[in-house]
């Protein structure tokens, strides 16, 4: 071999082996490694000589990634298409490192696949950064739908859930119930005990309502100020009345003193309870407005109580339940 060529090969080899990227070459016919850079040992802990065939590559891949990545790389290589693949590679110590393989397909004069050459890159830091960003985005999304004080859902989330559950009830012709509740004489509570204790009071009420609505699809949110709301899918009028009474009882059992209440020495709530099987033309906002009127009737009727009404799919008339 001429000295110039030998020198060039040595230079290229030195350059390849001095980069953080790990060069490799696979012979397509034998499916064996013709070469892999010594950097592989520093990254994964496996010796350079242990990379014999493609099985060594596949078996040192996370089980959850293996089938999809191997199938993708094989199909792309067979088609003669350059490609990239991200996966978790097993280290000799039993941990996993995120790898990006960048693959170039080499063809012979006849156009047949002859070899695969490529580079492995350690992308663990990038993946960790992506995961931190995804976690942050998820957290921000949760915050955007959560009331910052009480921890229950906020009005924005209520609007979204009501839209979904209303449409579901229209399709299935199943009853949907809504409870709006208001803390009795909350302004007087704040004036007497102060806003810090008022905030604690709101938190306690939110916790009590969370216990009252126990099914997976039941929704509890803060409607605004001292008002809370519950959405109860597939819940008829009788069951909704039971939930309303449970809300009233659980708030009372918090034992929150309210010296300025005109109905009881402990904190109480008033509730409006509506149940409906919505028709195709019925509007969710009209339903909310009707339930809100029931809440105000409960307050006008003495507070610490609830009033309820129900609609069905065949009439727009309100059939009032027994008022409690």
TrEMBL record:
It catalyses: 2 GTP = 3',3'-c-di-GMP + 2 diphosphate. SUPFAM superfamilies: Nucleotide cyclase (SSF55073), PYP-like sensor domain (PAS domain) (SSF55785). It comes from the Bacteria. Residues 8-69 form the PAS domain. Its EC number is 2.7.7.65. PROSITE patterns: GGDEF, PAC, PAS. Residues 83-135 form the PAC domain. It is an enzyme of class 2 (transferase). Residues 174-311 form the GGDEF domain. This is diguanylate cyclase. It comes from Zestomonas insulae.
């Amino acid at each position: 071999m001429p000295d110039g060529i030998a020198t060039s090969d040595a230079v290229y080899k030195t350059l390849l082996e001095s980069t953080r990227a790990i060069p490799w070459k696979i012979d397509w016919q034998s499916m064996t490694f013709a070469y892999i850079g010594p950097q592989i040992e520093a990254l994964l802990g496996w010796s350079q000589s242990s990379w014999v065939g493609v099985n060594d590559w596949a078996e040192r891949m996370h089980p959850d990634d293996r089938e999809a990545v191997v199938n993708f790389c094989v199909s792309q290589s067979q088609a003669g298409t350059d490609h990239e693949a991200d996966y978790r590679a097993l280290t000799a110590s039993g941990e996993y490192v995120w790898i990006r393989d960048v693959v170039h397909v080499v063809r012979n004069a006849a156009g047949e696949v002859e070899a695969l050459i490529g580079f492995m890159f350690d992308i663990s830091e990038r993946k960790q950064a992506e995961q931190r960003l995804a976690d942050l985005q998820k957290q921000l999304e949760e915050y955007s739908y959560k009331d910052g004080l009480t921890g229950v859902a906020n009005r924005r989330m209520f609007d979204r859930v009501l839209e979904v559950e209303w449409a579901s009830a229209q399709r299935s012709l199943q009853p949907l119930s809504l409870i709006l509740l208001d803390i009795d004489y909350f302004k007087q509570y704040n004036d007497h005990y102060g806003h810090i204790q008022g905030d604690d009071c709101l938190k306690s009420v939110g916790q009590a309502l969370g216990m009252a609505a126990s099914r997976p699809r039941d929704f509890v949110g803060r409607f605004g100020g001292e008002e809370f709301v519950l959405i109860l899918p597939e819940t008829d009028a009788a069951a909704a009345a039971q939930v309303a009474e449970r809300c009233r009882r659980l708030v009372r059992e918090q034992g929150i003193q309210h010296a300025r209440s005109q109905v009881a020495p402990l904190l109480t709530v008033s509730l409006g309870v509506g149940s409906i099987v919505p028709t195709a033309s019925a509007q969710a906002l009209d339903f909310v407005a009707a339930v809100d009127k029931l809440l105000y009737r409960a307050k006008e009727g003495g507070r610490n109580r609830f009033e309820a009404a129900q609609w069905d799919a065949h009439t727009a008339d309100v059939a009032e339940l027994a008022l409690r």
